[in-house]
Structure formats: C-alpha cells, structure tokens
Amino acid sequence: MAVDLLVVGAGFAGSVVAERMAAAGKSVVVMDRREHIAGNAYDEPDSRGILIHRYGPHIFHTNSREVFDYLSAFTAWRPYEHRVLAQVEGQLLPIPINLDTVNRLYGLALDEEGLKDYFERVRDPRPEIRTSEDVIVNTVGWDLYRKFYQGYTRKQWGLDPSELFASVASRVPVRTNRDDRYFTDTYQAMPLDGYTAMFSRMLDNPRITLALGEDFRSVRETVSARHIVYTGPVDEYFDSVFGKLPYRSLTFEHEQLPGVATFQPVGTVNYPNDHAYTRITEFKHLTGQEHPDTSIVREYPQATGDPYYPIPRPENDALYARYRELAEKEKGVSFVGRLAQYRYYNMDQVVGAALSAARGLLEGGL
C-alpha cells in the first residue's frame, strides 16, 4: 500500500497531523498499537453508562485561540473550570494554594496583602532557582511545601522535588487571592460529546485509513509512505541504542459507586500525604453528565508500564539530546509529541506542535 504519509500514534499529535494532511489532499495511514483512537484522551461509557476517561482525567485548557478554534471544528464545548482540593490534616483545601488554603489551614483571617506578608516571612529565599524544591520553599516556605508538595511529588515522580527541574513545580502557581480554579487559561472547556467523539470526527476522512491494534514495525513492512510522522517514544524508535529514556507510568483503579450521586465536592481531590494513590477524580464533575450513580478513578504512579510522563532531570535531558541528534538525521521521519520529543506537553501544546509540523510538511512539498 503506497500513501503520502504514515502516522504512528492516533492520539492528539498523530490525529491532528493526519487530519491536516488529509484535508490538503494527502493520503494517510494512521496506526496505533492500541485498539482505539484518541490515545490517552480516550473516553467511553462504563457498564452503567457513565462517561469515563480510561487513562485518567483529561482537562482541556488553552490560551491559544488557534488551537481552540481548530478543535472547535470537530466538537461543541461544555464550559468547565477545573477545581482541585487537597486532603491535608483532615481538611479538603484548595490547590493551587490560595488565600483560603492558608486561612483555613492555620485558622487565620488574612487578606491578600496579609498573605503576601505572610509568605515573605515564611519563605526560604533561594539565590538560584534550580529545582522544584527551590521553587516552592522560595515562595511559601517549608511547612506548606511539606504538607502539599513533597509527598505528592515523591509519589508522582518517585523522586524528591530537590531532584526535579524547577519547571515541574512551576506548573502549579501560588495565589494570594481566592481564585480556586486549577487553570486560568482563556479557554477552559470539555468536548461536549467526549474526546473519542471529537477524534472520530477529526479522522473521518476518506483519505485516512486507520490501522488499529497494529505494531509500527509490521505496518512499516506493508505500507510504503513518502513520509512518516512518529509520535511514540523516541528511544523505542531507535531500539534504545543509548539505553531507555526514563518515563513515569500510571495504573488506574476505576470504581463504580451505585446509588451514589456525588462522591466528592470537586472533580479531583489530591492526597499528598495519605494513601498510595495521588488523586481521585470523579468524572461527572468534568462531563456534567446527570446520572443516579457515579464513577471514580484512583491513580497510582509507578516506574514501569506504558510511558506517560518524561521525567525532567538533567541526566535525562542529556540522554534525550543524543536521541534528538539521531532523530534530526533520520530522513523522511518527523518526531512529534510528548513521547517523541521527550517534553511534558499539555494537550493544547501537543495540538500546537502538530499543527506546526503539518504546516512544515506541506510547505516542504509533501
């Protein structure tokens, strides 16, 4: 079978590139080793008809009008602002840390200026911000660091915050007002019919052929493509010639709760210091679905399994740089996405990278 483009991976990166190239008149094969499209964003009704995210919660948010407008061609939206609470010392407190978090935790009655002064008194100033520990203690001091961040980070990454790049902790802001939204992006919404439905519309083009449940190497033997877009782990593409890149994985414990209309007050509750899991998400908060029962998922980080998160450490970046050099020399192949570029991308960032990659391919004459 001869096509213009072979796309490896049917998640955001692969599907966006495939859609753009097919819309430009190119023939495309999209393959994925899983039996479904949508990658880790895949959602489906459980046995009680509750829409769940099989691979953990995916909350869409972006400041990019281009990304939002692009996806809007394939879905209507349900406005949704994600809120997260952390269980700390028997209380459910807002995270990111804000004015209410501090006042309720310590029994204070600070206003915004008072909280700024409080942080200034308790912070441990760092002359240079290099690690995630530096970010937090430099901002809010050691007690809040230990209560909200250290344990969660150790579970999530298997490493102490002092062993991780500052960029990890910088993803979660600290606020001095009462804003309890997890994200502050301009566009915050969930696909009205779910992610899988959105991906189905994206890939609904006669120029796109799906090959699901297929391995890249076997498909490569039967498909002749002018170009390949690879969205899987970059080290795997090169047979881990320099050794495996470290990734953090997850296991998910889904549970149905018959007769329970609401399990928790917000979409996600974090458990930084209790239990082996990091958080519990209740999907009905995210989707707005009305149902007499509810469904939740607990997340357990682990070192082995499907790769989810590149681990941001200097030695890992150095190893990736060697693979990136190979990737840049690989003719006829583009490496796009979180695993292929070994970056901690959000969903909108993956879409942006994929749109850019598709433009580059078309401008390059594919």
Automatic annotation (TrEMBL):
Signal peptide: none annotated. Pfam families: GLF, NAD_binding_8. Gene3D superfamilies: NAD(P)-binding Rossmann-like Domain. Its cofactor is FAD. GO terms for cellular component: cytosol. GO terms for molecular function: flavin adenine dinucleotide binding; UDP-galactopyranose mutase activity. Residues 147-344 form the UDP-galactopyranose mutase C-terminal domain. InterPro entries: UDP-GALP_mutase, UDP-GalPyranose_mutase_C. Keywords: FAD, Flavoprotein, Isomerase. Belongs to the UDP-galactopyranose/dTDP-fucopyranose mutase family. This is UDP-galactopyranose mutase. It comes from Leptospirillum ferrodiazotrophum. The lineage of its organism: Bacteria, Pseudomonadati, Nitrospirota, Nitrospiria, Nitrospirales.
